[in-house]
Design brief:
This protein has about 425 residues and is an alpha+beta fold. The chain contains 15 helices and 16 strands. The protein has two domains: about 15-180 and about 240-330, Bira Bifunctional Protein, Domain 2 (BirA Bifunctional Protein, domain 2); about 340-435, Rossmann fold (3-Layer(aba) Sandwich), CATH 3.40.50. Bound molecules: adenosine-5'-triphosphate (ATP) and magnesium ion.
């Protein structure tokens, strides 16, 4: 009977080869941009007490009501794998006693977990990289945080030869959810409006009508769309303070030459936002259009027991950016990274190869060893493994003590007798390979 092959869990995947390369490129490029914006990396556990997410996201959010991976551990604790990072970052901020050190500017990266219907750009284990500026109390800080996301996307697109003002054809969509007074007024208007259409609303939206009517605007149900189209706009409920806030954000974005589009229907999937909300969307990814989403969440930290501290942040979906990179790099040629392969054909040479390769690692270059009796096959294998250079260690080389470093791309060879010379040759050759 054939052995059954074990598969990855639905909605999870492995990352290797060029995908792994893209994954790292996304993480590293974004990481270096956000560090320039003075965010420091913070790493939290991948699971928290379930309460961390229930308290922060609210019981009516999709994420908490349908998408969490939760379990009771052997000690009886209710545990949830993080579906997003913001709540965990706020938990770390409070439990770490950082509330007196404001602003607390951190960035994060890592896997998040949501029980969703898997499709392109939508996984059950996916990755996010994001920033949170806790204690950021002014509109210019919203603009700065948005500029940071924009610059991160731009840096990534530039690596792939895209230097346009709309990297990956993204559109920055901007909206305001106002302050609490405006939101309460708007909520009232919405409840009145939706009540008159309650018979035609989806069941999900009918439930939200009492608990969180704003979320109805985010409904993806067909029967809700037409009703939503005629719903009152937030603008009608915004007070002067809230209007002034979002105007200032817009003025700064204009001045920084960051293009955006106002989208009065934009609400975020989670419950805790206020004032500025934004998304970077692209039409290159079908219905998984949002690559970065964020906004201001002035009430969250207090809600979690940390005092009235305002904050703003965003999260980028790493896999969606990887898809965009894959599309835009189809015509790119991947540069061959410098890598030296020792081909050991004589058993006596193995130890020399191990010694020499460690000397090469010590100066920061990649080197590895293949043992093989057949020269042609060995070279082919070295190429398959990504070698840019080879050194053959056969009987002849071992006896004469004369070796040669071969550059596979050009066929050039350079003779050497000792490791010092090899390192000099390599350094010179790798420098040109890198260009
Ligand atoms: P969507 O509307 O696409 O479900 P969301 O509003 O649930 O997104 P957020 O909670 O704002 O998403 O998460 C921020 C970003 O993380 C999203 O814009 C997206 O790029 C990414 N993301 C969210 N859920 C997934 C998922 N299941 N698989 C892959 N990426 C995801
Ligand atoms: Mg979602």
């Amino acid at each position: 009977m054939a052995k059954q092959i074990i598969q990855p869990v639905r909605g999870t995947r492995d990352y290797s080869g060029s995908d792994m390369h893209r994954f790292r490129q996304v993480m590293e490029t974004i990481g270096s941009v956000v560090e320039c914006y003075h965010f420091h990396e913070l790493q939290t556990p991948i699971f928290e007490f379930s309460e961390v997410f229930h308290r922060s996201l609210g019981d009516t959010s999709d994420v908490v009501s349908k998408e969490t991976y939760s379990f009771t551990d052997r000690g009886g604790e209710h545990i949830t794998l993080r579906p997003e990072f913001t709540a965990a970052i706020v938990r770390a901020f409070i439990s770490g006693g950082h509330t007196q050190q404001l602003p607390f500017k951190v960035w994060y990266r890592g896997p998040a977990f949501r029980y969703e219907r898997p499709q392109k750009g939508r996984l059950r284990q996916f990755h996010q990289v994001g920033v949170e500026a806790l204690g950021a109390s002014e509109p210019w800080q919203d603009a700065q945080v948005i500029a940071c996301a924009y610059d991160a996307l731009k840096a990534l697109a530039q690596l792939h030869g895209d230097d346009s003002p709309t990297p990956f054809d993204v559109t920055l969509e901007l909206n305001t959810l106002g302050d609490k007074a405006s939101r309460d007024a708007y909520r009232q208007m919405l409840v009145e409006y939706f009540r008159t259409h309650v018979g035609s609303l989806s069941e999900e939206s009918r439930i939200r009508l009492e608990k969180n009517p704003l979320r109805i605007l985010d409904s993806k149900q067909e029967e809700d769309r037409a009703i939503i189209a005629d719903a009152p706009l937030f603008d009608d409920a915004l007070n002067e303070d809230s209007k002034a806030w979002i105007m200032q954000v817009q003025e700064i974005l204009h001045s920084l030459a960051i293009p955006f589009r106002l989208n009065p229907r934009l609400v975020r999937g989670l419950d805790y936002y206020s004032h500025t909300v934004f998304e970077f969307t692209t039409d290159r990814l079908g219905s998984q259009a949002t690559v970065c989403a964020g906004g201001r969440y002035d009430g969250l930290i207090e809600q979690m027991g940390g005092g009235a501290i305002p904050a703003v942040g965003w999260a980028i979906g790493v896999e969606r950016l990887m898809l965009l990179l894959e599309q835009s790099s189809q015509h790119m040629h991947h540069p061959l990274l410098p890598m030296l392969m020792f081909i050991v054909m004589d058993d006596h040479a193995l130890l020399s190869a191990l010694h020499m390769s460690r000397d090469i690692h010590a100066i920061g270059y990649a080197a590895d060893i293949i043992t093989h009796k057949h020269m042609g096959k060995a070279i082919k294998k070295a190429q398959q493994q990504g070698a840019s250079h080879i050194v053959v260690l056969g009987e002849n080389e071992v006896q004469t003590g004369t070796y040669s470093l071969k550059y596979l791309a050009t066929g050039e060879s350079f003779a050497f007798h000792d490791t010092e010379k090899l390192i000099r040759l390599l350094a010179a050759s790798f420098a040109t390979t890198r260009e």
